[in-house]
Amino acid sequence: MEFIPYGSQWIDDEDINEVINVLKSDWITTGPKLKQFEEGLCNYTGCKHAVGVNSGTSALDIAVGALDLPAGSEVITTPFTFMATSNALLYNNLRPVFADIQKDTRNIDPEAIRSRITPKTKAIIYVDFAGHPCDIEEIREIAEEHDLYLIEDACHALGASYKGKKVGNFADLTVFSFHPVKPITTGEGGAVVTDNSELEEKVRMLQNHGIDRDAVSRYGPDASWAYDMKMLGRNYRLTEIQAALGVSQLKKLDRFIEMRTKIANLYNELLEEIEFIETPSAKNVVVSGWHIYTVLLNGVDRDKFFKYMRENGVGVNVHYIPIYNFTYYRNNFDVCSADFPVTEEVFKRIITLPIFPKMKFSQLQYVIKTIKGFV
Ligand SMILES: *Cc1c(COP(=O)(O)O)cnc(C)c1O
Fold first, then answer.
1. Which 3 state secondary structure label does DSSP give 344?
2. Could you say which of 220, 235, 250 is where a domain stops?
3. What is the pLDDT confidence band of residue 255, given thresholds at 50, 70 and 90?
4. Which of 76, 301, 364, 369 maximizes the CB count within 10 A of its CB?
5. Whole-model pTM?
6. What is the pLDDT of residues 70-82, one digit of tens each?
7. Most informative mutation of 6, 53, 57 for ligand 1 (most atoms within 8 A of CB)
8. Statement to judge: residues 267 and 245 lie in one domain
9. pLDDT tens, 46-76?
10. Peptide bond into 44 cis (omega under 30)
11. d(Cα 352, Cα 306) in Å, to the nearest integer?
């Protein structure tokens, strides 16, 4: 029996040739392909600046770092995400404050954000769950009212849009991931995009040891050896090998999203008659990237259903375990799951079905048939 994964990359010969060309060239890290990839991301999203890095997690870390917030500041975020979102706050000595989600989109609820604001709140990180953009207008209104920075964790949402504008244009900093299950892949990889040139400069420094490229001017015009370290940075650089793959994959992004949308629409149609499945929908102001396809189960034990599907070769998954449930968070933060009734309900009922651009119609039919066979 063939196993159908919940998500998977699509690498073709064109992608492979781009990578081979780099391997045969003089530059294998931080060279012309990286520049081309960053420019490609700017052109695609309409942002002014893009910084390519070695993962979405790294991108989140330095996006938060670039805000330079006082230690102990509070940042409001969703508990219903991959743990990298809130871990980025911990790396930077900031305090994650979770706000509950909305049932239909599983995105952070703007009203819940409001209820979590204190004098120590300095920023919001919102996540476009499954590639469905958040209520960005409402969130921006809150940010303006309370003078908060916004970071958009768009690791699911490259290529999605909100009110006719591509994701990447809404927050102070937007973060993407290029892990194999994400909208496009570079193996591992990520990027930060922004329109703010000061923030871009800090992000660039942070991904390269905190090195200031303008140090030469400080030591005089002849000091070609000079550089300075202005911030505590890391080595989060993206290789040319990865960037070449990124350049090639970016050309296919719109087609990938079209294919994902087609599969999501088919699921919605074919699952409608199954009573124990509550299908997802996209709000009419957004174009979702359909990074994952999640449904809510009605009156069915999720764990039994999960086991049954896996036994029948369908790679279902659970996105996500609420972050406050993890041991590390329980040991270090005083968070009570009762404060997140919607997150708790969704977590109990949610399951991810396979969706990826290369998914065949016969695979989709098999998933539907398998679901129908569950009693
Ligand atoms: C994948 C993901 C990340 C981390 O990205 P990596 O490239 O795997 O480090 C962060 N946030 C969300 C919401 C993600 O889905």
1. helix
2. 250
3. very high
4. 76
5. 0.97
6. 999 999 999 999 9
7. 57
8. no
9. 999 999 999 999 999 999 999 999 999 999 9
10. no
11. 9
DSSP letter at 358?
T
Q: How confident is the prediction for the chain on average, in pLDDT?
A: 96
Give the angle 332-152-40 at the CA atoms, nearest 5°. Answer: 135
Residues 216 and 349 both lie in one domain: no
Looking at the structure, do residues 204 and 285 belong to the same domain, yes or no? Answer: no
Q: Give me the amino acid identity at 356.
A: F
DSSP readout, 184-205? S--SS-EEEEES-HHHHHHHHH
Is 6 a member of any domain?
no
Tens of pLDDT, residue by residue over 259-282, are: 999 999 999 999 999 999 999 989
Distance CA 129, CA 320 (A): 10
pLDDT of 206 strictly over 90: yes
pLDDT one-digit tens code per residue, 304-353 = 999 999 999 999 999 999 999 999 999 999 999 999 999 999 999 999 99
Q: What pLDDT score does 274 carry? A: 96
| Residue 151 and residue 106 in one domain | yes
Residue pointed to by tokens 């929908």: 281
Predicted pLDDT at 214:
66
Q: Is the CB of 7 under 6 A from ligand 1?
A: no
CB 275 within 8 A of CB 249: no
- Ligand 1 atom nearest the C-alpha of 58 is 9
Residue ending a domain, choose from 231, 250, 269: 250
Same domain? For 185 and 260 the reply is no
Per the structure, the count of domains in the chain is 2
Cα(63) to centroid(ligand 1), Å: 13
pLDDT at 226: 81
Q: Same structural domain for residues 335 and 284?
A: yes
337 lies in which domain range? 253-374
